[in-house]
Amino acid sequence: MGTLFLVATPIGNLEDITMRALRVLREVRLIAAEDTRHTQRLLSHYQITTHSISYHEHNKLARLDAILAALAEGDVALVSDAGTPGVSDPGYELVCACIAAGFTVTPVPGPSAPVAALTASGLPSDRFIFVGFLPRQGGERRSLLAELAPLTVSLVCFEAPHRLIEALEDIQATLGARQMVVAKDLTKRFEDLRRGSVGDLLAHFQANPPRGEYTLVIAGQTASGEHKRERRRLSAPSSDAPPTTEAIAERLRHLRDAGQSGSAAARSVARELGLQKSVVYAIWLELNG
Fold first, then answer.
1. What is the pLDDT of residue 88?
2. Residues 133 and 167 sit within 8 Å (Cβ to Cβ)
3. Which of 48, 123, 148, 259 has most Cβ atoms within 10 angstroms of its Cβ?
4. Which helix (H) or strand (E) holds 231?
């Protein structure tokens, strides 16, 4: 019976692959790849001619029988477009099916964007939680961040460029003025690790539209309770009473001091408190003369 090898592949720089991974990719009977065209660039670079088939989010269940049949004849390697398969990429269902069928599942470790960003962040790396991609919808995203807020460990997540600014607004509104790192295109030519407070980074990306692939590392709740006090100060009023003008103004002052524009601050506070943006923006105008 064959073995399913979970082979980590480069997250950008093609040199970031182990000798073992290259050997496995040459010797297996079949490579199941998230995108065969993407993987072919890696295989061609190292002159590997092993046959590959697609295994991605949209066909991962339909492909199970074919891959299990291939394992009955020999070894199979599973790869994603970048990093370790099964981590925010297809792989979980296949691993479970192989274990249930009695096949051996073996990891071939290597590049990992969450670990790369964490170790270079300058934030505590002895304990951390990886939460994958933040939810697409703002309400779900803020709900998840609220659950993570009390944790004292570093938080690591992925975010798409077109949602990065909204995510930073929600992080600031939910977690307060924490330190964090936004890592772009790790190991690639234009790699960039930008460090600072949430407000500083938000202001930067409002002025410089995000492009690329982003990994975020956020400091955990401090033992002194500084973040807890900040979240209490910024927390929404009780649902039994509408937010007062002063409460709205206080949030706007905080975002203004963090460098946010009036439009962005009004949008963030309106979303947080469930108000019309025009109402909040009117308070912003009054607050700033």
1. 84
2. no
3. 123
4. helix 226-234
Helix (H) or strand (E) holding 181: strand 179-184
Asked if 99 and 6 count as a contact pair (C-beta separation under 8 A), the reply is: no
DSSP 268-281: HHHHHHT--HHHHH
Residues listed for the chain: 289
Contacts of residue 261, defined as CB under 8 A and 6 or more positions apart, other chains included, come to 206
Distance, in Å, from the CA atom of 189 to the CA atom of 198, rounded to the nearest integer, reads 25
pLDDT tens digits, residue range 3-26? 999 999 999 999 999 999 999 999
12: three-class secondary structure by DSSP: coil
Report, as an integer, the average pLDDT of 190-203. 93
Orientation angle between helical segments 164-175 and 198-207, nearest 10 degrees:
160
User: C-alpha distances in angstroms, 132 versus 10, 78, 129?
Assistant: 18, 19, 9
**Alpha-carbon Rg for the chain in angstroms:** 23
Cβ contact 98:69 at 8 Å: no
Task: Confirm if 24 and 92 have CB atoms less than 8 A apart.
Answer: no
